[in-house]
Write a structure and sequence with these properties.
CATH architecture of one domain: Alpha Horseshoe
GO cellular component, one term: nucleus
CATH topology of one domain: Leucine-rich Repeat Variant
Number of strands: 0
Number of helices: 29
Mean pLDDT: 89
InterPro entries: ARM-like (IPR011989), ARM-type_fold (IPR016024), Armadillo (IPR000225), ARMC8/Vid28 (IPR038739)
Subcellular location: Cytoplasm; Nucleus
Low-confidence stretches: 110-135
Structural class: mainly alpha
Keywords: Cytoplasm, Nucleus, Repeat
Helix content: over 70%
Distance between the termini: 69 Å
CATH class of one domain: Mainly Alpha
Pfam family, one: Arm
Length: 471
């Protein structure tokens, strides 16, 4: 199907070329709304509209006032959560246009920044109400809109992120994190979040430009939208990036993130409060991922094991999942890493919490609990015995071997492998117990599984069990 075969779309395509900028913006808005509502499902129609709507909006970036601002916001909605659309936008030279717009809408140096933690008259980004929106200067609104468009343009598209990071605009992004307007701070935080998803070599640009300190400052902001984006950006930056972990710790990030775990505000909606909680726990989880024992201990000294236990039982399933993942990361490493958690929570409470999570109705929580078992089983004989002595845990491990989900199967197989290392003194006893539970038979049945990773680990587990019995 072609666009000219649909009367309404044909009219909108004509209006996208109207000499009046406002009319072009309205037409682009209509097309964008139809696209986001999935009314335009035909691939050819979407392609035709993309090559027309995106250039139209890019040209509107050059219009003055509300039209420019509206074009940025419509563009952000159009490309949001769509890597193909973001790639098409990058191919249409959108990134240079948005970078230029960020610079053109930036305030003068005398009015650009203020303390991010001070109370501001702004209302959180995205809340209803024309009054708070009107109170901000037109230039601030345009600057915010430019950042939101830039954030959306590279949220899922790595080539677009590369273009942004190589454009030199990161200095402006970092500066905007300390802007006097909460809306601009939140938008700059959103942009940082998008860029922080980049490959490790490119994320270095953010670190080199000093993004860590203003991000940590934003963790004490009064605006929920700012808190959500700042914590989300930190989530991405600290993952597999040891220097950033140290920098966040140095700037007091641990205490600020722990404070946000239970954060609340009378001006924030329940959804915003929940988002702050999730991102705070998520950031702490990533902070301890493959971290030094010193960093793990610093996090738990601030958070506390009782609080961690409460997070594993909170009504919010996403928080529960992140809390279990936090435990998973804490017990990954050496015997001392496992000992800290077992001592901090107590052996009985560790087992009870893991069993409850394995039985959780939320699949993500159960998967994380299974990998907590995997990491506990990688510890010394005492840690392995903690797993083996729990009939409930072992029932779930055996059942997981028959799961239709490959990641669940893989976790269960890894648990078996970690419990049966031949070099360990009690390995033979554990192998005999596992055989009595039917584990060996289950593994043999899995030897022809369709997932290559599962099959590879199954063969390793069977070989290891056999080697242990022969010793």
């Amino acid at each position: 199907m072609r666009v000219n075969q649909v009367p309404m779309l044909a009219i909108l395509m004509t209006l996208l070329r109207d000499p009046n900028p406002t009319m072009r913006l309205l037409a682009a808005t209509c097309v964008t709304n139809l696209y986001r509502a999935e009314v335009l499902a035909d691939t050819q129609v979407v392609q035709e509209l993309t090559v027309t709507v995106v250039p139209c909006l890019v040209k509107l970036f050059g219009e003055p006032g509300p039209t420019q601002e509206g074009a940025c916001l419509v563009f952000a909605i159009l490309v949001s959560d769509s890597e193909p659309m973001q790639q098409a936008a990058a191919d249409a030279s959108t990134i240079p246009a948005l970078v230029d717009l960020v610079h053109r809408t930036a305030p003068s140096s005398s009015t650009s920044t203020n303390s991010s933690t001070a109370a501001q008259p702004d209302t959180p980004l995205g809340l209803d109400g024309a009054d708070w929106y009107a109170e901000r200067t037109a230039r601030d609104r345009q600057h915010e809109a430019a950042f939101l468009a830039l954030a959306a343009a590279c949220a899922q598209c790595e080539p677009a992120r590369r273009l942004v990071l190589e454009s030199g605009v990161v200095k402006a992004v970092v500066k905007a994190l300390r802007h006097s307007s909460a809306g601009v701070r939140a938008a700059a935080g959103q942009c940082t979040k998008s860029l922080s998803r980049s490959v490790k070599s490119l994320r270095t640009v953010l670190v080199d430009e000093g993004v860590a300190e203003p991000l940590c400052e934003l963790l004490a902001d009064t605006n929920p939208a700012v808190l959500v984006t700042a914590a989300a950006a930190i989530c991405n930056l600290v993952l597999e990036f040891a220097p950033m972990k140290d920098t966040i710790v140095h700037h007091g990030g641990i205490a600020k993130l722990v404070y946000l775990v239970d954060w609340s505000s009378p001006t924030a909606s329940p959804a915003e409060i929940a988002a702050v909680h999730v991102n705070a726990v998520w950031a702490l989880k990533n902070l301890v991922y493959e971290a030094k024992l010193e960093t793990k201990r610093a996090v738990m000294a601030a958070l506390g094991y009782s609080r961690l236990h409460a997070l594993m039982r909170t009504p919010n399933a996403t928080v529960r999942e992140q809390a279990l993942n936090l435990v998973r990361n804490l017990v990954h490493g050496g015997d001392a890493d496992v000992d800290d958690v077992v001592t901090g929570l107590g052996a009985d409470r560790v087992v009870a919490a893991v069993v409850a999570a394995l039985e959780d109705a939320a699949p993500g929580v159960a998967v994380q609990a299974l990998y907590v078992v995997v990491n506990l089983a990688a510890g010394n004989d005492a840690h392995k015995d903690l797993v083996m002595r729990s009939d409930a845990i072992m029932r779930h491990v055996v059942a997981a071997l028959g799961s239709p989900a490959a990641d669940v199967q893989l976790g269960a197989v890894w648990a078996v492998i970690n419990l049966t290392w031949p070099e360990e003194s009690e390995a033979g006893t554990r192998v005999a117990a596992l055989r009595a539970m039917g584990v060996e038979r289950r593994l043999q049945e899995m030897a022809n599984d369709q997932d290559a990773k599962v099959v590879d680990r199954v063969k390793a587990a069977l070989m290891q069990m056999q080697m242990t019995l022969e010793l």
